[in-house]
Write a structure and sequence with these properties.
Strand content: 15-25%
Helix content: 40-55%
Shape: globular
Strand order of the largest sheet: 1-2-5-4-3
Radius of gyration: 16 Å
Largest sheet: 5 strands, mixed
Order of helices and strands: HEHEHEHEEEEHEEHH
Structural class: alpha+beta
Number of helices: 7
Distance between the termini: 40 Å
Number of strands: 9
Length: 168
Amino acid sequence: MPDPEVTDFGGVLALMARSGVECILIGGLAGAVHGSAHVTYDIDFCYRRTPENLERLASILAPHQPYLRGAPPGLPFEWSAATLQRGLNFTLSTTLGDIDLLGEVVGGGIYEEILPHTEVFLLFGSELRCVSLPMLIRMKRASGRAKDLDMLAGLEALLEERQARGDG
């Protein structure tokens, strides 16, 4: 596995965009897209849980050796659409770096509920859906995790700045 602090953001985003996987960029990288200076080492997506999308997602990540992050080496783990169907949220280590796949996000809900609160951005040469800044703030606040709460002040300042300019 690669260094866990080195995720190929461009590679992951291009892979998702090329494959047609229905997903929304959330988390720290979404914050960076909106202008946050917060550093992140993984990439987080909320993914649609239709059978076709689960097949696409399992297929495109399979060559990158997904494994449950933090699990002991050698633990039996089968990466497949069936595994995705049986689970919901997955924190993975891959040869591209750390990827979190969330079927449901605290404060946001499932893919279909978050979708109206997204924007399309050109990221590393690929067009992808990214959660809106107000929804990202809502999700970070709802998570209650220290690392998410630490990001809130910066995200809220970005939103206030946008609103003052009339963009947000």
